[in-house]
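User: Hey, quick favor. My workstation is busy. Could you predict this chain's structure for me?
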Amino acid sequence: MAKKEETQVIELKPLSIKQARITIAGDGDLVLNKMNDCSARKLTDERKNKAKDTAATNVWEEVITSMHWYDGKPTDFTEEGLRKALARNAPCITAFGLKKSFGQAVVQNKIDTYATKFNAAVNVIAKGNLVPIKFAEHFIDEKLMSPKKGAPVLVRLNRFSGWSATFTIQYTENAYSLEQILNIIRLAGFGNGIGSGRTSGYGRYHIESVEG
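Assistant: No problem, here it is.
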């Protein structure tokens, strides 16, 4: 007679996921400077061995497309188009950049040897990975930058003063409490910042408010 198999009962405990809405505000100016569309086209053409385009680059396309935009990339690459975009759309930092800033603070301040546990326990929730900023003033800084190969290149950097950003985090308290997470964000804002030019002190921030 065949033995009757025993049924093993596994109890699945509910995962307690909590949320908090956090607003950070700049302690200094924020610089946004991702690779713009003009540079991306040039690199793509070089890899495809296409002939160099000798036409002058549209400066406003460079400036506008070197930022992430919350409501889609603007298509009017003029000075007026930039003004309208800044008024009606919203430049963005990224959820990935924020998470990286927080994770670096975990390791730098010896809270944990690696950021693995923090990365698994805390998520930044943002539509399209984008967190829109509010700001008081926008400036375009011209700067000569030296690439690893070739002559120095003139770049135009978007700089914002009086900036702030609000984002939502999801977390589980089995790894870090909300108090611990907020302390990590404070350390990240003080020591790491967000955006470009962080080694020069740009993009530093503090927590302005917390809900949830």
